[in-house]
């Protein structure tokens, strides 16, 4: 039985179709004062394996609270075999303490999710792999890169684009996609020319007259991506496209990226977005079939 939360109902429908499983009928609504209502409309047996699919991105508090309502309702129904698929796991960008006496939000979230009865957690491209260590239950951190590579193979006109990470931290994503496509990859690095001057350039490969696809896990404001596009244009790239896993995309980020010269901005459907053109339903379904 698959339950789709408000943030991921379309994705839950796709996963249920891929697995040939039943999608549970639910009722959700928001009261005039902003509080949420949730109801399960189908019968669920106590021994059933229930899979909840609910991203907890913006609005994080609202989506997280609905998730807890779902979990508490299942507890009242004596359901104990619960797997949570949260393709984008909110409050996971602070997994350690940077200043004294500040909340480690990823740890606090982990405590709540486990207390509410989740026995297995599945997410996609967590911001840090170390987040898995905050849980006492199995946590599977899936990669969206195969789905992204397949999308590029089927839809991108250039057969051998350079797959580029905007910084060293995202190089592993670019490398994974490039390996699947049998093409080149690189990342942008900062080179200090003098105590006062720093130049950002590709590490190993010239992009002159080459098509480039920038790959990243999360794009929030788009500032890093805009900087990367400007550098690639200066270095003679003939075309630039942008793909990310999690399209947070706040504060006119899409407009800024397009204005900088990107041909397109695309993302997976871990979050609802107008640019979410790449489905991770098969990635999730194939994994669920094997657990």
TrEMBL record:
Q: For this protein, what reaction is catalysed?
A: D-ribose 5-phosphate + ATP = 5-phospho-alpha-D-ribose 1-diphosphate + AMP + H(+)
Identify the SMART domains for this entry.
Pribosyltran_N (SM01400)
CDD domains cross-referenced by the UniProt entry: PRTases_typeI
Q: Where is the Ribose-phosphate pyrophosphokinase N-terminal domain?
A: 1-117
Which positions bind Mg(2+) 2?
Answer: 167
Q: In which pathway does it act?
A: Metabolic intermediate biosynthesis; 5-phospho-alpha-D-ribose 1-diphosphate biosynthesis; 5-phospho-alpha-D-ribose 1-diphosphate from D-ribose 5-phosphate (route I): step 1/1
Q: What is its EC number?
A: 2.7.6.1
InterPro entries from the xrefs? Pribosyltran_N, PRTase-like, PRTase_dom, Rib-P_diPkinase, Rib-P_diPkinase_arc
Question: Into which EC class is this enzyme placed?
Answer: transferase
Q: Which coenzymes or cofactors are required?
A: Mg(2+)
Q: Where does D-ribose 5-phosphate bind?
A: 192, 216, 220-224
- Residue ranges annotated as coiled coil are none
One GO BP:
purine nucleotide biosynthetic process
Give the family this protein belongs to, as stated in its UniProt record: Belongs to the ribose-phosphate pyrophosphokinase family. Class III (archaeal) subfamily.
Q: Which NCBIfam families does the entry link to?
A: PRK00934.1 (NF002095), ribP_PPkin (TIGR01251)
What is the protein name given in its UniProt record? Ribose-phosphate pyrophosphokinase
Species name: Methanosphaera stadtmanae
